[in-house]
Structure to design on (1232 residues):
């Protein structure tokens, strides 16, 4: 069986060498370890010993040739034997494929079934936490595709992409400081035949938030009514002037001002519940629930409303409402509200018991303005009693205040709502 | 009497000069005595003095000329006073740690006392005219560490004399006439660095004049336990030159209290060293140490009564005084008057030093007290603030940290209070933080125009004719261009000369540029480094080769203690732009495959540590460093010399910026941060990963110090959110360093979506052979699996587990 003579690797990191001299010729006898040829590299000169005893059958690399380490140089065998395959024999080791390509087929990994949120969110990586915080993402809404359902950066980015594509009604206020809510499983709905409308992201978000709010705080609602005569007169007197400046002076602006005044008079209402204590907010940021019709509802926030005049508020209300409907709100324009006003009267409701926008303390509901017959009182006109009662027709509105009974008791809540009523009754 | 005076004059020292010497010796002694008193009274933390060695140093100073250099240690105050390089006031300023370069020009308060240095540099980092100045390299505490650089300081004179192309550099040398004066204690002659340096100086025939101050002790250990036969002169006799020969040393033995003999010996010895470039050693015996080693001990505890008595009798000042009186040069009253005057002068200098040191700190304290009062006026915590103020006010000699601590205490006390005056205090605190940052932490690296960070990048230029050549040919062409461009470039190391280095980077260059420009050295890593430091201190541009990275450990002590701290410890007073060239990471065997880069990087803060992945990158770094005045270590990739690269047309001109990583493969999935030989491993793993759909981005950091000054790795991490640190160092070594840089310093943490991973080598040294390498160091498959499993965790559907 013929033996190969291979160009050795002459020391560390030498990749090639030059055959400087063959010490044997074809047909010569050679003993194992007898010097067979001389090789030099840029670093060393060396004699190469024969790997076997026998006869030189073939010399494949002539003197003066530089070849890579591992190259077949010659064959040694029994006298009369022939070199296998001549010089065409591929003696250089073929590079071994190091790794089989791993199939990339998207198998519906049966080993990793999607896990429900009831196991918690799992490990939240720093970048996922960062994105969730910056983009106001409720991570319980994000489907994790990592190992054991971990939410990866890719997952949260995909969620954001979907949210951008979906109608922009995701503008929920800040998530509650408490643990993520667990959406209760729907009751088995298959009993009655019908159609299932798939839940949009927004629908699901609103649902979760409402359930969470009801579960979080004990809601109590108190109702009062306001005579808007002075407000109507004021609006009438100023509407046109403001319209020329491009501002639509809405009644909502007056309610915002009244709410701000009342919050200043009762700072405890501008607050949030926390386990450590009641957090009094320094800023007064008024959220304005804005309907988007079927697409749901969004609550843009007038930041630092206490620093704005009536016209400033009106301008902000116009701007936020318009951009809300045009889906042009920026993420931080729906964040950090400290109190919310919902103007359900626009759809004809007289009064309602709205749900608190967590983690706020309360929400002011404004009903429809109606001209109603009311009894009014006055003084000095009646010579006998010094006062009088009369029946009058006045623009009236019911306002409701739903509050977190953990923070407020009824008397304080009524005082607050009374302040709202007072400032509008006696608008100056 | 008259005749004796005449004899004294025959000594070539006038009576006036002798009495001036006595005055200087007395002043220096007073500085030692008062210095110890100051420490013992708590005004300084530590003191070490040159008492008992005054006379020999005065004699040495007589032989010292402009352009000469000293490399000594902490006993040399008298010499420094005598050559006018240090004043007594500056001596005390250093004792008090006065952090002001005007008051304490040697180290600006950064070094403990008696660590001397002259300032070779202008404030802008440019060289002063060293040939016209008295020069002292900057002392370090580790004994013997003055020896390696002494080799280079001395050898530089030989180069300046014998290389015609250096004759133009007259600001550094006048015909190579400068002597490098060394001083060393007797106990240090037991150290390896001493012997290695002596041998190197002898081989190099460098004009060194070394004094051995022999007081027969090394702290408490007597010569019996230090030196064979207790006599270093006798041991050195084998180095002595034969009459008429130029090989070897001249040896002198002289008593440290014998003034005329000392003066005569030094003048004679120096004349020969200077003119003939034959080194000399003066063994000065019978020295004493009247106050013991330092303020941290009392020699009465370990010296016998007889020894103490002998020291008293042989105190050089006492002997000098006796000689002056016996020779009739002055009488007892005159000498008493000199001593009294000396005492007064030293006390006055000390007082000025103390006042200059203390006044600004007291003024700062006053500012703090006033600010506290203003805050207290409107604070609920007035009582606590009064307490803080009173504690601060009652400190007899405040430190800056006392002032700062009080400010911080105040801020804690009034936290949550809304007091307008707080902003003044905060502004003061920030200002002081910045000032103290400058006082204690500036100048770790060059901030001159020639800082490595300011060398502008010049891209390599390739044309159709640019040939593919071996890596070592790239380096060879680079070094050839450097040697041709700048005559100050001097290359040396083991096998660098005749062989042209073991990997041929200098092949043929000795023949072309001569054996002084490209030289062989003995096997002596410590003094290869020291030779480079000394030469660079004198304006040359040494490229010192350590044959393998594993052998850098010999030299690491001196590079760390001396070179890396030099610019910082002199606050920009001295620089030594040395290039240490070595090769490492991956070859064969335990001591030819090491890559202990974290150990090196951490010990060499103050140097640049560059880790080019191939020889073009290495050449670019050499070009950059030769245009800068920072010292650098360049680690070439051992297994890269025979890999072919394209030779840039501008091989001598192109530069690679330091501190700027390069993305050598773009990808979106995982960032792999690596350097050196591991770049090839990472590239191969990336190729395989790409086949399974994972695209790795590979960042070659290229320089460990400075590390990614532009935050380029962060940019990659922001894209991928996954990061792997790969190298061949131990676990927790350089990979941990890189991770800290990226996650903490660059703020990479919040961008992570997968836990960060390191792939280092094993904690042991690499085992021999290809299999030893495979199981000791990171390999392609390991990188593949690590990255794959990371992606499998992220997306198990797409990347099913490899091992299930």
């Amino acid at each position: 069986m013929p033996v190969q003579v291979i160009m050795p690797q002459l020391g560390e990191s030498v990749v090639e060498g030059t055959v400087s001299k063959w010490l044997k010729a074809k047909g010569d006898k050679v003993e194992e370890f007898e010097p067979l040829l001389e090789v030099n590299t840029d670093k060393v000169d060396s004699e190469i010993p024969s790997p076997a005893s026998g006869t030189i059958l073939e010399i494949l690399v002539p003197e003066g040739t530089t070849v890579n380490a591992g190259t077949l140089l010659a064959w040694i065998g029994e006298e009369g034997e022939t070199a296998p395959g001549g010089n065409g024999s591929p003696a250089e080791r073929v590079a071994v494929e190091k790794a089989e390509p791993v199939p990339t087929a998207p198998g519906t990994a049966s080993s990793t079934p999607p896990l429900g949120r009831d196991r918690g969110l799992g490990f939240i990586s720093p970048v996922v936490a960062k994105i969730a915080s910056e983009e106001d993402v409720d991570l319980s809404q994000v489907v994790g595709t990592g190992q054991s359902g971990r939410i990866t950066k890719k997952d949260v980015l995909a969620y954001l992409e979907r949210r951008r594509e979906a109608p922009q009604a995701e503008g929920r206020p800040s998530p509650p400081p408490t643990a993520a809510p667990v959406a209760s499983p729907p009751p088995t709905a298959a009993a009655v035949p019908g159609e299932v409308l798939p839940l949009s992201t927004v629908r699901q978000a609103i649902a979760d938030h409402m359930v969470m709010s009801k579960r979080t705080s004990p809601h109590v609602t108190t109702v009062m009514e306001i005579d808007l005569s002075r407000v109507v007169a004021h609006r009438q007197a100023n509407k046109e002037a403001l319209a020329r400046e491009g501002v639509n002076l809405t009644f909502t602006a007056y309610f915002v001002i009244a709410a701000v005044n009342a919050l200043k008079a009762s700072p405890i209402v501008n607050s949030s519940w926390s386990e450590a204590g009641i957090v009094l907010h320094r800023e007064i940021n008024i959220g304005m629930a804005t309907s988007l019709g079927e697409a749901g509802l969004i609550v843009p926030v007038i930041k630092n409303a206490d620093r704005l005049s009536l016209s400033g508020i009106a301008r902000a209300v116009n701007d936020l409402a318009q951009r809300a409907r045009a889906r042009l709100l920026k993420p931080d324009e729906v964040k950090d509200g400290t109190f919310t006003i919902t103007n359900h009267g626009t759809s004809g409701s007289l009064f309602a018991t709205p749900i608190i926008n967590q983690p706020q303390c309360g929400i002011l509901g404004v009903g429809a303005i109606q001209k109603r017959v009311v009894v009014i009182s006055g003084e000095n006109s009646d010579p006998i009693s010094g006062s009088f009662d009369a029946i009058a027709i006045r623009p009236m509105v019911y306002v409701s205040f739903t509050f977190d009974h953990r923070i407020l008791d009824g008397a304080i809540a009524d005082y607050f709502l009374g302040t709202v009523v007072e400032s509008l009754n006696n608008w100056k | 009497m008259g005749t004796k005076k005449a004899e004294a004059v025959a000594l070539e020292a006038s009576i006036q000069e002798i009495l001036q010497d006595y005055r200087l010796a007395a002043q220096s002694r007073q500085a030692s005595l008062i210095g110890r008193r100051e420490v013992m009274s708590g005004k300084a933390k530590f003191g070490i003095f040159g008492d008992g060695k005054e006379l020999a140093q005065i004699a040495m100073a007589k032989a010292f000329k402009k352009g000469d250099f000293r490399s000594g240690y902490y006993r040399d105050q008298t010499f420094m006073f005598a050559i006018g390089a240090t004043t007594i006031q500056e001596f005390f300023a250093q004792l008090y740690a006065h952090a002001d370069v005007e008051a304490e020009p040697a180290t600006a308060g950064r070094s403990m006392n008696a660590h001397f240095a002259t300032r070779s540099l202008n404030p802008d980092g440019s060289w002063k005219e060293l040939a016209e100045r008295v020069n002292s390299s900057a002392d370090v505490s580790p004994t013997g560490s003055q020896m390696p650089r002494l080799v280079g300081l001395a050898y530089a004179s030989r180069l300046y004399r014998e290389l015609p192309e250096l004759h133009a550099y007259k600001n550094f040398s006048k015909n190579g006439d400068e002597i490098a004066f060394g001083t060393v204690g007797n106990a240090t002659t037991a150290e390896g660095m001493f012997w290695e340096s002596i041998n190197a100086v002898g081989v190099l025939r460098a004009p060194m004049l070394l004094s051995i101050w022999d007081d027969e002790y090394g702290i408490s250990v007597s010569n019996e336990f230090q030196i064979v036969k207790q006599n270093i002169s006798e041991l050195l006799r084998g180095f002595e030159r034969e009459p008429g020969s130029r090989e070897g040393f001249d040896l002198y033995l002289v008593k440290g209290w014998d003034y005329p003999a000392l003066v005569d010996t030094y003048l004679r010895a120096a004349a020969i060293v200077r003119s003939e470039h034959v080194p000399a050693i003066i063994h000065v015996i019978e020295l004493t140490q009247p106050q013991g080693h330092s303020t941290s001990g009392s020699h009465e505890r370990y010296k016998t009564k007889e020894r103490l008595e002998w020291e008293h009798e042989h105190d050089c000042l006492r002997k000098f005084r006796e000689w002056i009186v016996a020779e009739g040069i002055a009488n007892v009253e005159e000498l008493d008057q000199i001593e009294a005057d000396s005492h007064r002068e030293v006390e006055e200098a000390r007082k000025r030093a103390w006042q200059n040191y203390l006044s600004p700190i007291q003024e700062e304290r006053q500012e703090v007290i006033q600010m506290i009062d203003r805050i207290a006026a409107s604070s609920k915590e007035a009582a606590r603030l009064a307490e803080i103020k009173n504690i601060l006010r009652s400190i007899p000699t405040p430190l800056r940290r006392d002032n700062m601590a009080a400010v911080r205490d105040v801020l804690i006390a009034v936290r949550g209070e809304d007091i307008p005056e707080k902003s003044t205090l905060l502004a003061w605190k920030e200002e002081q933080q910045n000032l103290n940052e400058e006082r204690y932490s500036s100048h770790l690296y060059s901030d001159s125009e020639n800082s490595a960070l300011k060398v502008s990048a010049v891209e390599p230029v390739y044309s159709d004719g640019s040939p593919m050549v071996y890596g070592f040919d790239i380096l060879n062409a680079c070094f050839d261009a450097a040697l041709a461009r700048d005559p100050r470039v001097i290359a040396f190391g083991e096998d660098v000369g005749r062989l042209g280095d073991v990997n041929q980077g200098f092949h043929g260059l000795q023949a072309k540029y001569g054996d002084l420009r490209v030289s062989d050295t003995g096997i002596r890593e410590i003094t290869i480094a020291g030779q480079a430091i000394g030469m660079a201190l004198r304006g040359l541009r040494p490229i010192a080769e350590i044959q393998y990275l594993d052998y850098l450990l010999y030299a690491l002590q001196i590079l760390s203690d001396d070179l890396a701290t030099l610019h910082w410890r002199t606050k920009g007073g001295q620089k030594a732009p040395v290039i240490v060239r070595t090769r490492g990471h991956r070859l064969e065997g335990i001591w030819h495959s090491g890559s202990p880069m974290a150990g090196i990087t951490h010990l060499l803060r103050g140097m640049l540590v560059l880790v080019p992945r191939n020889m073009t990158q290495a050449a670019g770094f050499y070009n950059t460093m030769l245009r800068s005045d920072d010292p650098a270590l360049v680690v070439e990739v051992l297994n890269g010399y025979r890999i072919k690269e394209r030779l840039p047309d501008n091989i001598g001109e192109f530069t690679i910026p330091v501190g700027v990583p390069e993305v050598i493969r773009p990808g979106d999935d995982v960032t792999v941060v690596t350097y050196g030989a591991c770049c090839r491993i990472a590239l191969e793993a990336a190729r395989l990963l790409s086949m399974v759909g994972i695209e790795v981005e590979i960042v070659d950091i290229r320089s460990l110090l400075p590390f990614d000054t532009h935050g380029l790795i962060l940019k990659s991490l922001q894209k991928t959110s996954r990061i792997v640190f790969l190298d061949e160092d131990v676990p927790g070594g350089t990979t941990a360093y890189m991770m800290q840089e990226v996650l903490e310093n660059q703020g990479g943490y919040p961008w992570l979506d997968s836990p960060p991973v390191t792939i280092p080598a094993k904690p042991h040294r690499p085992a021999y052979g290809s299999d030893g390498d495979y199981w000791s160091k990171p390999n392609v498959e390991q990188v593949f699996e690590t990255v794959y499993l990371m992606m499998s965790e992220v997306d198990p559907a797409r990347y099913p587990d490899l091992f299930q």
